[in-house]
């Protein structure tokens, strides 16, 4: 097998090239690529929480909290009452909408650069194939989680022991 035939390697190289392209377009701005993801997610899902944001950024709740806090401090997001009394929902502000519009123009430029050697059908095929790769990994993770819970010594039928 050649290095150029390893799907994971090619994905990583494409991701790195994509990151460099976006970084060049964001140079001189206070924004990071994750800011676009965060603002766009909150615009599309008003009231989402930090956990959902963290997952969209391929992280966890603490990643979502860190980015939400940074964007809130800049007036781009606000936290208000969430889906229940214990959570806070995230909402994009007017300033955040304006920043997102500028970021999306930059990301469209980066996308155009990345796909400049693809026609429309190839671009659509690439997106479909990437989704299939992601789905394969998500399915594997779900199976692993099921296996872990099946191996758990916890039996829901057994009464819980009271603390001593």
Topology:
Elements: H1 7-26, H2 33-44, H3 50-56, H4 61-73, E1 77-81, E2 88-92, H5 94-114, H6 120-150
Antiparallel strand pairs: 1-2
Description of the molecule:
There is one protein chain. This protein has 164 residues and is mainly alpha-helical. It has two domains: 3-117, Orthogonal Bundle (Arc Repressor Mutant, subunit A); 119-151. It has six helices and two strands, in the order H-H-H-H-E-E-H-H. It has a two-stranded antiparallel sheet. Strand 1 (77-81) and strand 2 form a beta hairpin. Helix 3 crosses helix 4 (61-73). The N and C termini lie far apart (60 Å). Residues 156-164 have low confidence and may be disordered.
Write a short abstract of this structure:
The chain has 164 residues and is mainly α. It has 6 helices and 2 strands.
Strand proportion:
5-15%
What is the CATH topology assignment of the largest domain?
Arc Repressor Mutant, subunit A
Helix content: 55-70%
User: What's the rounded overall pLDDT mean?
Assistant: 88
Please tell me how large the radius of gyration is. Answer: 20 Å
Contiguous uncertain segments of 5+ residues: 156-164
Task: Please give the alpha-carbon distance between the first and last residues.
Answer: 60 Å
CATH architecture of the largest domain: Orthogonal Bundle
Please give the order of strands in the largest beta sheet: 1-2
What is the molecular shape? flat
Topology order in helix (H) and strand (E) letters: HHHHEEHH
CATH class of the largest domain: Mainly Alpha
Report on the biggest sheet. Answer: 2 strands, antiparallel
Number of helices: 6
């Amino acid at each position: 097998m050649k290095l150029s035939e390893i799907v994971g390697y090619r994905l990583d190289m494409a991701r790195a090239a994509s990151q460099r392209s976006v970084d060049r377009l964001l140079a001189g701005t206070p924004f990071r690529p994750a800011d676009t993801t965060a603002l766009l997610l909150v615009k599309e899902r008003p009231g989402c929480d930090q956990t959902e944001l963290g997952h969209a950024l391929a992280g966890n709740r603490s990643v979502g909290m860190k980015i939400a806090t940074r964007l809130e401090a800049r007036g781009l997001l606000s936290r208000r009452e969430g889906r229940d009394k214990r959570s806070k929902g995230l909402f994009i502000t007017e300033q955040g909408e304006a920043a997102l519009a500028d970021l999306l123009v930059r990301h469209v430029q980066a996308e155009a650069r990345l796909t400049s050697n693809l026609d429309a059908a190839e671009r659509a095929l690439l997106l479909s194939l990437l989704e299939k790769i992601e789905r394969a990994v998500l399915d594997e993770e779900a199976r692993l989680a099921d296996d872990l819970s099946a191996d758990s010594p916890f039996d829901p039928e057994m009464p819980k022991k009271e603390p001593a």
